[in-house]
Amino acid sequence: QVQLVESGGGLVQAGGSLRLSCAASGLTFSSYVMGWFRQAPGKEREFVASIARSGRNTDYADSVKGRFTISRDNAKNTVYLQMNSLKPEDTAVYSCASSLRLAYRLSPNVYEYDYWGQGTQVTVSS
Questions:
Q1: Cα separation, 120 vs 94, whole angstroms
Q2: pLDDT the model gives residue 34
Q3: Up-side HSE of residue 115: CA atoms within 13 Å toward CB?
Q4: 83 in helix, strand or coil?
Q5: Which of 29, 40, 56, 79 could join 72 in a cystine, given CB atoms 3.0 to 4.6 angstroms apart?
Q6: Mean pLDDT across the stretch 29-35?
Q7: What's the whole-number average pLDDT of the chain?
């Protein structure tokens, strides 16, 4: 079965950096658009970033543009999220997701993603 397993979360001071990883199994990874989403306590899940199947195209939420970078290694079935200049408002559970239906599109819509990981906690202290 499809599994997405995130790692790399933790506690960091404001201005610091973290790199999240999401290892995928049970699917043809290079056929899936991948995305990162986050959910803070009491808030809805929100889009962070997405990356095309080839890795050539990416999309970001305005709140993280210029600070976060999404990338993928299709040979390792892994997608990454490099997070720099972290702010307390970035505190959330970060989850990766995969979408087969998006094909050649990118989308911030959670409903267009088929499989989800359990998430990893990121806490940014002020």
A1: 5
A2: 98
A3: 20
A4: strand
A5: 79
A6: 97
A7: 97
Closest by Cα among 126, 99, 96 to 112? 99
CA 103 to the chain's CA centroid: 18
CA-to-CA dists, residue 123 to 10, 14, 55, 70, 115, angstroms? 6, 9, 28, 19, 24
pLDDT in tens, 52-107: 999 999 999 999 999 999 999 999 999 999 999 999 999 999 999 999 999 889 99
Which token pair is 58? Answer: 């990416």
Structure-block tokens of residue 32: 């899936």
58 Cβ partners below 8 Å, 6+ apart?
A: 49, 50, 51, 52, 69, 70, 106
